[in-house]
Known about the structure:
Number of strands: 2
Mean pLDDT: 95
Domain HTH cro/C1-type: 6-61
Helix content: 55-70%
InterPro entries: Cro/C1-type_HTH, Lambda_DNA-bd_dom_sf
Strand order of the largest sheet: 1-2
CATH superfamily: lambda repressor-like DNA-binding domains
CATH architecture: Orthogonal Bundle
Protein name: Helix-turn-helix transcriptional regulator
Distance between the termini: 9 Å
CATH topology: 434 Repressor (Amino-terminal Domain)
Number of helices: 5
GO molecular function: DNA binding
Shape: globular
Largest sheet: 2 strands, antiparallel
Pfam families: HTH_26
Amino acid sequence: MIVINLDVMMAKRKMSLTELSEKLDMTMANVSNFKNQKAKAVRFTTLDALCRILDCQPGDILEYREDV
Length: 68
């Protein structure tokens, strides 16, 4: 299962959902869905923008965990 650690990176960068959604030019609802593990997919352009804005690597946001 893929786990989204966006909330961890946002906390490390002291960035609010509002600020991130504005910088991504996405609705807060869409960013919130991604942050709360409700997204079914992510575009590479979005992942690229997240990494640029949060100054991180894709692996800092996405993590694979075996289902238990």
